[in-house]
Amino acid sequence: MEAQNAINNETRSSYDRIYELKVFDEGKLGVKRLIDAGIQKVSSMFVRLLEDREKDFDTCSKNISVSIINFADLGENNDRIAEIAKEIIMASNEWGFFQVINHGIPNELLERMIKRTQMFHEQDDEYKKKFYTRDFHSKSVYFTSNHDLYKSKAASWKDILYVNARKAGGEIDPEELPLVCKDVMLEFIDRIHMLGNRILMIISIGLGIEPDCLGNMAKDNIGGLQVLHDNKWVNIEPVTGGLIVNFGSILQMITNDVIKAACHRVIAKSVGPRISIAFFFSGIMTSEKILGPIKELTSKENPPIYRNFSIEEAIINLFSNSLDVVGANLNYFRIQHNGKDK
């Protein structure tokens, strides 16, 4: 009996972190529940190992400004569109990020979107539990905490309300949205789709391909944000009314590395909650369309760097890895040449 107890104690000790994660996950209320409970000490499940922290890049001490691109008076002015396209391509090469101002989405709508999202997270426990899941492909709208909870070395201090704004068969069913933010979300989704499609059109022009090329592919993806630049973390200071645009791995793969995806992270503020609204232009997950490097951007001298893939494969691969593994998604699709990455 004593020997059996020793084995049980050893097993429990070995899997203590897993046990802690399960207790947290089964609570279905995320990190806000811990705050509401008045915890005095952050759980070890959120603490990164010292050996990992020692490998971190430093934060840049200088005030460096990421590219700010002004869409004012854009209209149908071809010269202005070409000029902005050049600015975006330059920003993608240097930063993988840019901020856009005068984009046409009212500040009032942006502020209301943030406020209503915060109101959802402040709903009573039983209401939020109805949306909680870890089966991310079964629902178009869900609430969760850490997509990579069981894969990352340390959990992130964040909760997520996820809305799949584009799914096969049509637009999202409004009745699936939380009542407290339904109306504002529907308006925001319409506006951000229009802006996103316009940005994809401008990028296409900058790449010298058909203006609707990237848009056709997609139709069938506040203070505290940092971007990795020259091996240092640089603070992205938000511009009032501006939107931060970052390039993702799918865009990098289909442009054959002409557009670079940005490595970024979010750090917690010392006071108050941080609410951010992220919108991903990744296309419809169930689409049968196969993507790959655009032919016009490849040649004999510049062959494809990545293999063909589907949106579903790219998204499943992204969420099957820990989100703190930099470049894992790109490396998975990279073509091997003589046993080496190209």
TrEMBL record:
Domain Isopenicillin N synthase-like Fe(2+) 2OG dioxygenase: 217-281
Gene3D superfamilies: B-lactam Antibiotic, Isopenicillin N Synthase, Chain (2.60.120.330)
Keyword field: Iron, Metal-binding, Oxidoreductase
Residue span(s) of domain Non-haem dioxygenase N-terminal: 67-167
InterPro entries xrefs: DIOX_N, IPNS-like_FE2OG_OXY, IPNS-like_sf
Origin superkingdom: Eukaryota
One Gene Ontology molecular-function label: metal ion binding
PANTHER family in the cross-refs: 1-AMINOCYCLOPROPANE-1-CARBOXYLATE OXIDASE HOMOLOG 1-LIKE (PTHR10209:SF429), OXIDOREDUCTASE, 2OG-FE II OXYGENASE FAMILY PROTEIN (PTHR10209)
Family of the protein in this entry: Belongs to the iron/ascorbate-dependent oxidoreductase family.
Name under which the protein is recorded: Uncharacterized protein
Upper classification of the organism: Eukaryota, Viridiplantae, Streptophyta, Embryophyta, Tracheophyta
